[in-house]
Specification:
The chain is mainly beta. The protein has strands spanning 4-11, 19-26, 43-47, 61-64, 69-73, 83-88, 93-97, 116-119, 122-126, 129-134, 144-149, 154-159, 166-172, 176-179, 185-192, 202-213, 221-227, 230-235, 248-258, 265-273, 295-301, 313-321, 328-340. It is built from no helices and 23 strands.
């Protein structure tokens, strides 16, 4: 069967470039094909952009040629109104970011809108500090395995056990010089986060420092360790350190453990002070420990404590000079704190 079409200009003079045509499919005898709903009209093609001036009946389609758009007549018979954009440029609203209170189940008005595509951003934070908000989270690292669980409509993230992991939770790499004061002064102060130490976990502290006594006479120190505000070790008066124009190397390490519960601890460690003589590089000359002017405690044991480590607790190390002098200095060079999880 031969199919004929009749093109009829139904409205002109909109502008030089704006003309609406009616395209009608005809049978062999030149009669229009179709029933009541599509009689005579198969499509109206618009050249240019006559915005809302095309006629039509409900169900008719209008194709714009200046912009890739498809409109459909929703209401009104042979009127210029009632057209709805159903495809192409601008058919969907700009992506919206859904977050906050409006994203709660059953209360969001944005999520149910059919005319929007949504970009859902997930906020990722590290210990409460916002790192970023993106529509995708990427898991990396040898201890992380991510799998798609289609039957349960979810994604599974498996993280390797933390048993036996030693985590450095703090490092203070800069100098802190306690000089010209006889008041107790912290050389290290850090708050261990709540729950960081389980019932069988331990913590280890290490500090590198040096000491100068150039006052002309021997001087002493007081040395204090606190956990959660409780003094667990205190040396009120060290031996007298002879005066010398050179600094002495100082090393201190201390460890404590939770005793199968999170609110009972015991600890210990050691500390040493070298002679004032210097090696070729650095501080701390290698000497016979039976020689004079070397000091330290090869082993110390703390008092027991009952600090609740499910809460945030401060770990502090402080010193007290015997006198205040600009020639008397205890200088922390660096310090760090590790937690071992078992």
């Amino acid at each position: 069967m031969t199919v004929n079409y009749e093109v009829e200009e139904i409205k002109d003079a909109l502008s030089v470039q704006r003309v609406i045509f009616r395209i009608t499919e005809l049978d062999e005898e030149g009669q229009s094909i179709g029933g009541r709903n599509n009689e005579q009209i198969i499509a109206e093609a618009i050249i240019g952009s006559p915005e809302d001036r095309a006629l039509g009946s409900p169900g008719d389609l209008r194709f714009r040629q200046d912009i890739a758009q498809i409109w459909q007549k929703a209401s009104g018979v042979r009127t210029v109104t009632g057209w709805q954009l159903i495809g192409g440029v601008g058919a969907f609203g700009s992506p919206v970011t859904v977050r906050g209170a409006d994203n709660l189940e059953g209360t969001s008005t944005d999520l149910v809108r059919a005319d929007h595509r949504h970009r859902l951003e997930v906020e990722a934070a590290d210990d409460g500090l916002l790192i970023g908000a993106r529509p995708e989270i990427n898991f990396t690292g040898s201890g992380v395995v991510v799998t798609d669980d289609d039957p349960n409509d979810r994604v599974n993230v498996a993280i390797a056990s933390t048993t036996g992991i030693i985590e450095q939770i703090d490092i203070q790499p800069t100098d802190l010089d306690v000089v010209n004061t006889a008041v107790e002064t912290d050389v290290y102060n850090f708050t261990i986060p709540a729950g960081k130490m389980g019932a069988t976990d331990s913590a280890r502290f290490r500090m590198v420092a040096d000491y100068l006594n150039d006052t002309g006479v021997g001087r002493t120190l007081a040395f204090i360790v606190r956990l959660g505000g409780t003094i667990v070790y205190r040396e009120n008066t060290t031996p007298s350190f002879p005066a010398a124009p050179a600094r002495r190397a100082f090393w201190f390490q201390y460890a404590f453990v939770n005793r199968d519960v999170t609110n009972a601890q015991i600890g210990g460690g050691n500390y040493f002070m070298s002679t004032a003589a210097a090696p070729a590089t650095g501080l701390g000359d290698f000497v016979d420990l039976s020689a004079t002017q070397t000091f330290g405690a090869p082993a110390i044991v703390s008092a027991t404590s009952a600090i609740d480590m499910t809460l945030a607790q401060t770990f502090r190390v402080s010193i007290i000079h015997s006198v205040a002098s600009t020639f008397l200095s205890f200088r922390r060079r660096c310090a760090f704190l590790d937690v071992s999880q078992v």
